[in-house]
From TrEMBL:
<keyword id="KW-0511">Multifunctional enzyme</keyword>
<feature type="region of interest" description="Disordered">
    <location>
        <begin position="429"/>
        <end position="450"/>
    </location>
</feature>
<comment type="similarity">
    <text>Belongs to the methyltransferase superfamily.</text>
</comment>
<dbReference type="InterPro" id="IPR029063">
    <property type="entry name" value="SAM-dependent_MTases_sf"/>
</dbReference>
<dbReference type="InterPro" id="IPR025714">
    <property type="entry name" value="Methyltranfer_dom"/>
</dbReference>
<dbReference type="GO" id="GO:0032259">
    <property type="term" value="P:methylation"/>
</dbReference>
<dbReference type="GO" id="GO:0008168">
    <property type="term" value="F:methyltransferase activity"/>
</dbReference>
<keyword id="KW-0808">Transferase</keyword>
<dbReference type="InterPro" id="IPR051419">
    <property type="entry name" value="Lys/N-term_MeTrsfase_sf"/>
</dbReference>
<feature type="domain" description="Methyltransferase">
    <location>
        <begin position="50"/>
        <end position="172"/>
    </location>
</feature>
<feature type="compositionally biased region" description="Basic residues">
    <location>
        <begin position="434"/>
        <end position="444"/>
    </location>
</feature>
<keyword id="KW-0489">Methyltransferase</keyword>
<protein>
    <recommendedName>
        <fullName>eEF1A lysine and N-terminal methyltransferase</fullName>
    </recommendedName>
</protein>
<dbReference type="Pfam" id="PF13847">
    <property type="entry name" value="Methyltransf_31"/>
</dbReference>
<dbReference type="Pfam" id="PF01564">
    <property type="entry name" value="Spermine_synth"/>
</dbReference>
<dbReference type="GO" id="GO:0005737">
    <property type="term" value="C:cytoplasm"/>
</dbReference>
């Protein structure tokens, strides 16, 4: 038995609906939204004494249930199908005397003006507005005009809909321009009984007299989890808010059948500001044998540690979930723009929402554990916020790492999950969540760095590998000697500062295109210029091009990020690895010098193209992959080198860096670093 229409146009055909209801018989057909789901919303806007019009009633039980529940009795139902009107009259004639059924086209109704307090539409607009063709839109306008005509001022048009973007946009634009108040409710789902994956919405359009010359619009959305409506500024924002809730419903459907092979992520936003407050990742572990107590857990990532490999990468989160021993682990990252009272308040705030992401089969009343590192939410203090035309918005923040160490970081907000620069603080700083000692009577100035920078420590693994590349310079007697080093890309200044401090005769030139970064490095990261350290505010491309016929360097280091996020290479910008420019880099190197490049490229083809170009320019090319990161450090030399000298050079550099009074972490043994270097 074929019930579906052959074309969308048949949805508006009385002949189609007569055939539909003859074939279906007396069995009620509910498109979506059963009465128990709709009842909480209908109770808000339908009063017992209201005169209600139901357009396109079909053989839905909605009117009957409203009548039987005492919500309202004066209900007029209309439909273009004579078949269904006869069926419904027979069904209600003896039991519902105050309710009537009329065959009538909602596009041309016979009712007088201002005759009803409520017009109810369950799926009728969705059936009418199947496309955005001119004729279809004209029918929607005609429908809206008729509804507006028969409604009293202060009356409500309640439209139950799946809220396709073009349907919602059309309805909101029409009625808001007429001066009506528009509110969209999301209907609470009924769990396993829900017919549709997508959520059901109710548009509530309240009629007001149109004020001439007024362009003010009142647009609101009321999500199912809260009664208080949220005001939005435009139709586009309202459509986007609904779309977010539809995507969330699809996500919940996607993870309802574990194990979910791909990690699903979503943002939960602050109700007031609309900005992301929590970022959630759903991680399933098929290898974990399920038991009563290990179905589901929530892991709160300490503030400031969301960029670490274990928490910030898919593989790291998978390892975390497996080691935690839960079939599904929900990781929760906290955002720097938000304030958090503590673990208890986060648990209370999230407990309702996260249970919607629980795996099926979770035992009833199962206690779901909230986990973290050390049982707390970490410490983060934003020290400085600013923006520049070149780097965009950025922040400087202090965070507590693993153990008792504190770190200062520079983050570009256009790529907020990447740490641009990082230094270790020598002493713990009084941060939010910590108590000050009583003897510390002097208050720290908010404009001054809270503690000294540990310049002996390189936080970034790729910086350690870049420094290791200096062992490729000359013979053992050349280290530590006079070194001419060019660093393109300042950031927080950690890399050039380290080279400057640990090579007493090194002369370091730094090129930075953004003057704001020089100010940040100096004020917040302990960077300073002097006789052996000079910063040139210039485009690295132009600076190298001018030097090509002049100076020679022992080492040239590129640590430059790309602002173009559409390219599959975030470091360096593509222009820095084009062959003509690389030839200029080669020209400013001494014969036995080394060019060190930090490469961050997720596009396999682009990466191979970059490596091929480098091979064309530099006879000798080494690569060092940074474990757990996308970074690869490339060491390029303009002339062939004797591989037997590598060990001697590494020992010479290591010895130089271990001079008395110069602390050096044991993990920085450069010979070990170079064991992982491969010759291409």
């Amino acid at each position: 038995m074929e019930l579906l229409p052959r074309s969308p146009a048949e949805f508006g055909s009385a002949r189609y609906w007569d055939r539909f209801f003859r074939q279906r018989g007396q069995r009620p057909f509910e498109w979506y939204g059963a009465f128990p789901e709709l009842c909480p919303v209908l109770h808000k806007y339908v009063r017992p004494r209201d005169k209600v019009l139901v357009v396109g009633c079909g053989n839905s039980e909605l009117s009957e249930q409203m009548y039987d529940m005492g919500m309202c009795e004066d209900i007029v139902n209309i439909d273009i199908s004579d078949t269904v009107i006869r069926q419904m009259r027979e069904r209600s004639a003896s039991t519902r005397p105050k309710m009537s059924y009329l065959r009538m086209d909602m596009l041309q109704m016979d009712f007088p003006d201002a005759h009803f307090q409520v017009v109810l539409d369950k799926g009728t607009l969705d059936a009418l507005l199947t496309n955005e063709e001119e004729a279809t839109l004209a029918k929607a306008d005609q429908m809206f005009a008729e509804i507006s005509r028969v409604l009293q001022v202060g009356g409500r048009y309640l439209c139950v809909s799946l809220a396709q973007a073009h349907v919602l946009k059309k309805a909101v634009e029409y009625f808001s321009q007429e001066g009506w108040v528009v509110r969209v409710h999301q209907v609470a789902s009924s769990g396993d009984k829900q017919q549709f994956v997508l959520p059901v919405f109710v548009y509530v359009m309240t009629k007001f007299r149109k004020i001439p010359g007024s362009a003010a619009q009142i647009l609101e959305i009321c999500p199912e989890e809260q009664d208080k409506p949220m005001r939005v500024k435009s139709t586009e924002q309202l459509v986007a808010a609904v779309k977010d809730r539809q995507h969330y419903a699809l996500l919940c459907s996607q993870i309802s059948k574990p194990p979910c092979r791909e990690q699903v992520s979503l943002d939960l936003c602050d109700k007031e500001s609309g900005k992301p407050r929590y970022t959630l990742h759903v991680v399933d572990s098929p290898s974990v044998k399920p038991s009563r107590d290990n179905h589901f857990a929530i892991f709160i990532i300490p503030q400031g540690r969301e960029t670490e490999w274990l928490f910030g990468t898919e593989e790291g989160r998978r390892q975390l979930a497996a080691s935690a021993g839960f079939g599904r682990l929900l990781t929760v990252a906290l955002h720097r723009e938000q304030h958090y009272e503590g673990m208890a308040s986060i648990q209370a705030e999230l407990s309702g929402k996260v249970m919607e992401l629980a795996p099926p089969g979770l035992p009833a009343r199962q206690q779901v554990p909230f986990l973290s590192v050390g049982g707390d939410i970490g410490v983060r203090a934003v020290r400085h916020c600013d923006s520049s035309p070149l780097s965009g918005e950025f922040v400087v923040e202090d965070v507590k790492g693993d153990g008792t160490c504190y770190f200062r970081r520079l983050i570009f907000l256009q790529n907020r999950n990447v740490v641009q620069s990082e230094v270790r603080l020598l002493a713990p700083t009084t941060l939010p969540g910590q108590k000050k000692r009583r003897k510390d009577k002097k208050k720290a100035s908010p404009t001054e760095p809270p503690g000294a920078i540990d310049k002996s420590y390189l936080c970034c693994e790729h910086h350690k590998a870049m420094v290791a590349g200096l062992c490729l310079l000359g013979g053992p007697d050349a280290l530590p000697g006079e070194l001419a080093v060019l660093v393109v890309g300042l950031g927080g200044g950690s890399l050039p500062l380290f080279v400057h401090d640990y090579f007493s005769q090194a002369r370091v030139a730094v090129v930075e295109i953004d003057p704001s970064m020089l100010e940040v490095a100096t004020r917040w990261f302990g960077f300073s210029q002097g006789d052996r350290m000079q910063v040139h505010v210039s485009d690295g491309l132009d600076y190298v091009a001018k030097l090509a016929a002049e100076g020679q360097y022992d080492a040239v280091m590129f640590d430059v990020d790309s602002k173009d996020l559409t390219v599959g290479m975030s470091c360096p910008p593509p222009a820095f690895v084009e062959k003509p420019f690389l030839q200029k880099v080669k020209a400013i190197l001494k014969p036995e010098g080394v060019f060190v490049l930090n490469l961050v490229c997720r596009d396999a083809r682009l990466k191979e193209s970059v490596l091929a170009t480098l091979r064309d320019v530099f006879p000798l090319l080494y690569t060092r992959h940074i474990q757990g990161e996308v970074n690869e450090i490339l060491f390029c030399q303009p002339g062939p080198a004797d591989p037997t000298e590598l060990g001697a050079r590494a020992r010479a550099l290591e010895g130089a860096l271990r001079q008395p009074g110069r602390p050096w972490d044991s993990s920085y043994v450069l010979a070990d670093v170079l064991q992982a270097v491969h010759i291409l």
